Amino acid sequence: MKTQVAIVGAGPAGLLLSHLLHLEGIASVVIESRTREEIEATIRAGVLEQGTVDLLAQSRVGERMQREGLRHEGIYLRFAGVSHRIALSELTGRAITVYAQHEVIKDLVAARLAAGGTILFGVKDAALYDLDSDSPKVRFRHENALPEISGDFIAGCDGFHGVSRPSIPSRHRHEFTRSYPFGWFGILVEAPASTDELIYAHHERGFALVSTRSPQIQRLYFQCDPEDNLKRWPDARIWEELHTRLAGSDDWKLAEGRIFQKGIIAMRSFVVEPMRYGRLFLAGDAAHIVPPTGAKGLNLAVNDVRVLASAFSRYFKSKDEEALAAYSATALKRVWRAEHFSWWMTSMLHRFHDDTPFQHRIQLAELDYVVNSKAKALTLAENYVG
Ligand code: DHB
């Protein structure tokens, strides 16, 4: 198979890249190790920045998002038992939209297939070759055949555990990592919304987050041991923990409901530099991970492919390589801003195992400053909306 851009991975980065390239008249083939059913059902994040929403709408894959997504103009920080609103829209003129990542995936898969795009699902043993030549290749197993795709370029959009990043010789990779000694326990609940906007809660037992998916489905998280076992968390224990961490002196109360999905998410910060090797370009989680506090992961992936699609377009229109040469530095600027923001939000809101009473008071002092200083609230708001 020959194509212009071979895309490894059908997550948000790979699918959106394929879609944006198609709008520019550039051919691509997407390969994915999982099935279509799996990628369309995997529960991930759900907060879209204004810029993400605008790009999906402008590129004509935002119709359902605009109908079903929930636009929020603020968030709450809850600490010492009281909620404080950060007025995102008043401060920045922008808003966020709550719309699940797997719904974005469904919309993108549908758009690619309707346009006659090629996505090969269930591909095994993908390996990248000749990355420093003019004709990089991907070989893999698919339906008992051993096909090869050669492209002008390869886009590595296959996530943190994918083959793309390790295909770069280690001497050409600089990796920056921080892991956190906790995870998030996430649940989906059939219940009415308890709050009109997301609540990020600081508590001495650890962080908790009240989010939503629809008027009938709520998404809740609480900080946990990353090695914890779902079996140790029967529903009653989950509710008790959430009520404790969200308790307060106001009369706000979390509504309970039927829990129909549970999972534990690990937390890490990671960046590889540069995001390019020869004719391989990395985008999304293949190149960087943020802890989920602040909801930047999907939005960073979208920003990467916005920059990358435009650089490919310039190359294929006029053989101008300048934008491609600038891709890594351009994307990394935004990546490091989000790395800092996500690390800051995580540090301010979580309990660390070696916390002292002094550190607890320092967190409260910072939270108090964020909600009482317009400058600090604006710092949070402009990073949050993107
Ligand atoms: C959600 C996830 C996040 O990481 C976050 O910061 C806010 C909301 C969510 O899944 O709804």
Architecture blueprint of SSEs:
Layout: E1 2-8, H1 12-23, E2 28-31, H2 36-41, E3 47-48, H3 50-58, H4 63-68, E4 70-72, E5 75-79, E6 82-86, H5 88-92, E7 96-98, H6 101-114, E8 118-120, E9 124-129, E10 137-141, E11 148-156, E12 174-190, E13 199-201, E14 208-212, E15 217-224, H7 235-246, E16 258-273, E17 276-277, E18 280-282, E19 288-289, H8 297-318, H9 322-349, H10 357-372, H11 374-385
Parallel strand pairs: 1-2, 1-11, 2-8, 5-13, 11-18
Antiparallel strand pairs: 3-7, 4-7, 5-6, 9-10, 10-11, 12-15, 12-16, 13-14, 14-15, 16-19, 17-18
The structure holds 3,4-dihydroxybenzoic acid (DHB).
Number of H- or I-type helical stretches:
11
- Report strand %: 25-35%
Largest sheet: 8 strands, mixed
> Which ligands occur here?
3,4-dihydroxybenzoic acid
- Series of H and E elements: EHEHEHHEEEHEHEEEEEEEEHEEEEHHHH
The 3D shape can be described as globular
Provide the residue-averaged pLDDT.
97
Helix content: 25-40%
Uncertain segments: none
Helix/strand structural class: alpha+beta
- The tally of strands reads 19
Distance between the termini: 38 Å
Oligomer: single chain
Radius of gyration: 21 Å
